[in-house]
């Protein structure tokens, strides 16, 4: 991702900024498209992961749909070229204003998360003399002892409709004349790398599909949600997720009926590896107990490490040639003569103790002005940035 030319280019640019490798993004999208096309699967990009216009432009150019979670995302998706017939709208708290935006835009469907929401969408559609297509988001409520997907799938989660409410759902769907039932929707969590979890999801989807069919509903769409994870530890050697194995699980374990569509809502897997947060060292504080590298980026630019204790690889690009992790043992012995490897807490400038990207990171001895990259920052990075401390809005730089 960072050749010498790119690193010298960074030296001329004010930091911090997000760097997007658009070539890698396209390769990732291509890999996903090829793997999903093989089975005729439909992918909606979960644009909450990143709605940078250049990212949206690339994603939509491959013909993916958009999975939106606000009225603004619906409007932005369509304004950026996504086909409205491939836009879905999820979220536990859709406001009337947002539902109206989506009705006016004639999107493909609402992923509905409560019985009350079904009634509201029906009323608003009726007022416009329209029919709203709806899919029911089901909370799988799976016992953690037998299945792995506990992240969003239990009764105490706010997401989705619990199975004990499904009779109400069926009744409401029958009585609401301005709703058209298209299918069932699930989303069990994010950063899932164990394919066994998806196998368990398939079993649950099959059961739910049967439940609806037994009651006379035709399930045209099976929407499995998103969640495919990426390798945060190896952003160079494992930068494109294994889409083939992922889709194959669904091909093998879902009971797909003739004419039925299978939908996916991938966010992170499509965009995470294609960007890094680039920052400079402002100050180096060498202490008796701790050494601190104080960067000019902090939790305001990338909050995942602070909010979720998430690991994102940190590299000193200015001393990349000296980085022991990039070299063979003999090479690193030679370079260790020149450069020391030290442990640092890599922190930001924000007035919060939690503003720390990672503690005790082993790095080549680093100096004021060194350029750092925090890798795998393309998903839930730029979009979660804030202006706290009245920081400048974060800028973006793109590969040529
Ligand atoms: N569909 C639904 C209904 C979702 O709630 C999400 C993500 C996705 C699809 C896309 O999931 P993905 O493929 O990106 O895993 N900010 C957190 C992640 C929050 C995910 C929220 N929902 C993070 O930085 O790890």
From TrEMBL:
Catalysed reaction, written as an equation = meso-2,6-diaminopimelate + H(+) = L-lysine + CO2
Choose any GO biological process term that the UniProt entry carries and state it.
Answer: lysine biosynthetic process via diaminopimelate
Molecular function as annotated in GO: diaminopimelate decarboxylase activity
Orn/DAP/Arg decarboxylase 2 C-terminal domain location, by residue?
18-378
Q: Which residues carry this modification: N6-(pyridoxal phosphate)lysine?
A: 48
> PROSITE patterns, alphabetically?
ODR_DC_2_1
Q: Which domain of life is it from?
A: Bacteria
Swiss-Prot/TrEMBL cofactor(s):
pyridoxal 5'-phosphate
- Signal peptide region: none
Q: What is this protein called?
A: Diaminopimelate decarboxylase
What species is this protein from? Mucilaginibacter ginsenosidivorans
Name the gene: lysA
């Amino acid at each position: 991702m960072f050749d010498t030319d790119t690193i010298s280019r960074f030296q001329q640019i004010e930091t911090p900024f997000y760097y997007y490798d658009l070539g890698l993004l396209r390769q990732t999208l291509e890999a996903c498209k090829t793997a999903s096309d093989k089975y005729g699967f439909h992918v909606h990009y979960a644009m909450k992961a990143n709605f940078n216009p250049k990212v949206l432009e690339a994603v939509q150019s491959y013909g993916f749909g958009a999975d939106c979670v606000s009225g603004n995302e619906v409007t932005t998706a369509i304004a950026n070229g996504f086909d409205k017939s491939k836009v879905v709208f999820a979220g536990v708290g859709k406001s009337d204003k947002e539902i109206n935006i989506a009705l006016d835009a004639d999107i493909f469907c609402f992923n509905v998360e409560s019985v009350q929401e079904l009634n509201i969408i029906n009323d608003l559609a009726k007022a416009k003399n329209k029919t709203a297509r709806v899919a029911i988001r089901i909370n799988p409520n799976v016992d953690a002892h037998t299945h792995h997907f506990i992240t969003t799938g239990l009764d105490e989660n706010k997401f989705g409709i619990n199975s004990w409410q499904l009779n109400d759902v069926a009744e409401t769907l029958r009585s609401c004349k301005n709703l058209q039932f298209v299918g069932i929707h699930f989303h069990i969590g994010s950063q899932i790398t164990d394919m066994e979890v998806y196998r368990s999801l398939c079993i649950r989807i099959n059961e739910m599909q049967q439940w609806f069919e037994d009651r006379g509903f035709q399930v045209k769409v099976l929407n499995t949600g998103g969640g495919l994870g990426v390798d945060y530890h190896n952003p160079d050697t494992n930068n494109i997720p294994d889409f083939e194995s992922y889709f194959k699980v669904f091909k093998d374990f879902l009971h797909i009926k003739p004419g039925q569509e299978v939908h996916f809502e991938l966010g992170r897997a499509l965009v995470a590896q294609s960007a890094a947060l680039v920052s400079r060292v402002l100050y180096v504080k060498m202490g008796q107990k701790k050494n601190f590298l104080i960067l000019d980026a902090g939790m305001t630019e990338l909050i995942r490490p602070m909010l979720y204790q998430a690991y994102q690889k940190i590299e000193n690009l200015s001393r990349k040639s000296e980085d022991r992790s990039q070299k063979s043992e003999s090479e690193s012995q030679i370079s260790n003569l020149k450069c020391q490897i030290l442990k640092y807490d890599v922190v930001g400038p924000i007035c919060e103790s939690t503003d720390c990207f990672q503690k005790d990171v082993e790095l080549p001895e680093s100096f004021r002005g060194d350029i750092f990259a925090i890798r795998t920052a393309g998903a839930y990075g730029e979009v979660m940035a804030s202006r706290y401390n009245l920081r400048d809005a974060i800028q973006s730089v793109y590969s040529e």
